[in-house]
Write a structure and sequence with these properties.
Elements lengths: L2 H65 L3 H23 L7 H27 L19 H9 L2 H29 L3 H25 L1
Protein name: DUF305 domain-containing protein
Pfam family, one: DUF305
Organism: Tsukamurella paurometabola
């Protein structure tokens, strides 16, 4: 082989080697770029998922609040408020009627138990964005006395008052227990359900006491 051919062959070999090296570098850079892009995409996806998770974590407060009550809860609080209001009104009538001490004591207990529950219903309805409750009487509700019955009760004194008051309050309590049972079957709000349980157990015990007083 002549010197010229040797030089040409050497030059070609160098060019080929350079091309291979360049290809390797380019391939390495492409691989690194791809890896970097994948990592960036992964990080972005993770970041987005994390943000979404945080957003979901913030939103549950709204969803959780919504999940804490339903229409049955609103109905119970709204209707039990005036129901309790009439019971409190009946309890206040005992004063000055010459009622038996046992009736006076029971009336005070009823008033002491039901007024705080009315306050709780007002607070819960406000938290739920529902209309404020009203003491206006819906006399069609379970156990509610009519205006005529209330007027008759006001006109009585002594033993006649005691008898009528106990009879009416037993019917009133039974109506409240029916309403509490509906809340316990259909309601979901923990505090509302707890009040319903208290109403049911407390008024069942009071009915037993009143029935003994009537016997």
């Amino acid at each position: 082989m002549t010197v010229s051919r040797i030089r040409i062959a050497t030059a070609l070999s160098a060019v080929a080697a350079g091309a291979v090296l360049l290809g390797a570098c380019t391939s390495g850079e492409s691989s690194e770029t791809a890896t970097s892009s994948a990592a960036t995409s992964s990080a972005t996806a993770t970041g987005t998922a994390g943000h979404s998770g945080h957003g979901t974590g913030a939103a549950p407060s709204s969803r959780a609040v919504t999940a804490q009550f339903n229409d049955a809860d609103v109905d119970f609080a709204t209707m039990m408020y005036p129901h309790h209001a009439q019971a409190v009104e009946m309890a206040k009538l005992v004063d000055g009627k010459g009622a038996r001490p046992e009736v006076v004591e029971l009336a005070a207990e009823i008033q002491g138990a039901q007024q705080p529950e009315m306050d709780a219903f007002t607070r819960l309805l406000a938290q739920w964005g529902a209309p404020a409750p009203s003491a206006s009487m819906d006399h069609a509700m379970d156990g509610m006395m009519t205006p005529a019955q209330m007027d008759e009760l006001r006109s009585l004194r002594g033993a006649a008052f005691d008898r009528e008051w106990l009879t009416m309050m037993i019917a009133h309590h039974r109506g409240a227990i029916t309403m509490a049972d509906t809340e316990l079957q259909k309601g979901v709000n923990p505090e509302n359900r707890k009040i319903a349980e208290q109403i049911k157990s407390g008024q069942q015990a009071e009915i037993a006491r009143m029935e003994k007083l009537l016997a």
